[in-house]
């Protein structure tokens, strides 16, 4: 099998990997911010719930979480699951896992802001939501971007874990072709894909960092 044919064979899996990557970010970034608010809440039950959630998500393997999300509805509630639920389960598992990591990144950024900025905004007549979203949050984004970049790069590689629920992402298809052809070439192609994907992500995030580096 020539390299062009191999790429065509892998293209469907590549699109699935990209879909998992994009949708995970779409759901996990705002969810992570909500969890960060819960983690910093002055309401103790909310704070403890957020702490427990973050602890479980960061303390257990993503592969295990994917299996719980997929098989849990049947074994816990007796709800029949179909093959069409596989992709949904993958997205739910990835989103709730990465939201926990993003929550701690957000929290670190928010808590690094000086109290004086909140006080100055109050004197100027800003409401609490206005203070956060107009003054604090833009600065937080700039500060946490390197940490977010690390998580996003990890996410690119973690998309291969979708194989545990038999979702035919790129690495799964590469394994199938490698087994059928008894060749390592599909794995090399998969490695190139992940490297190029991560390179694009790194370049985009670096450009964003430079754009936000308004002190220069």
From TrEMBL:
The chain crosses the membrane at residues 12-38, 59-77, 83-103, 184-208. GO terms for molecular function: transmembrane transporter activity. Residues 14-205 form the ABC transmembrane type-1 domain. PROSITE patterns: ABC_TM1. Keywords: Amino-acid transport, Cell membrane, Membrane, Transmembrane, Transmembrane helix, Transport. Its main location: membrane. One of its GO terms (cellular component) is ATP-binding cassette (ABC) transporter complex. It is found in: Cell membrane. CDD domains: TM_PBP2. SUPFAM superfamilies: MetI-like (SSF161098). It is a multi-pass membrane protein. It holds the Pfam family BPD_transp_1. GO terms for biological process: amino acid transport. The keyword Membrane applies. It comes from the Bacteria. InterPro entries: AA_ABC_transptr_permease_3TM (IPR010065), ArtM/GltK/GlnP/TcyL/YhdX-like (IPR043429), MetI-like (IPR000515), MetI-like_sf (IPR035906). Belongs to the binding-protein-dependent transport system permease family. This is Amino acid ABC transporter permease. It comes from Clostridium scindens (strain JCM 10418 / VPI 12708).
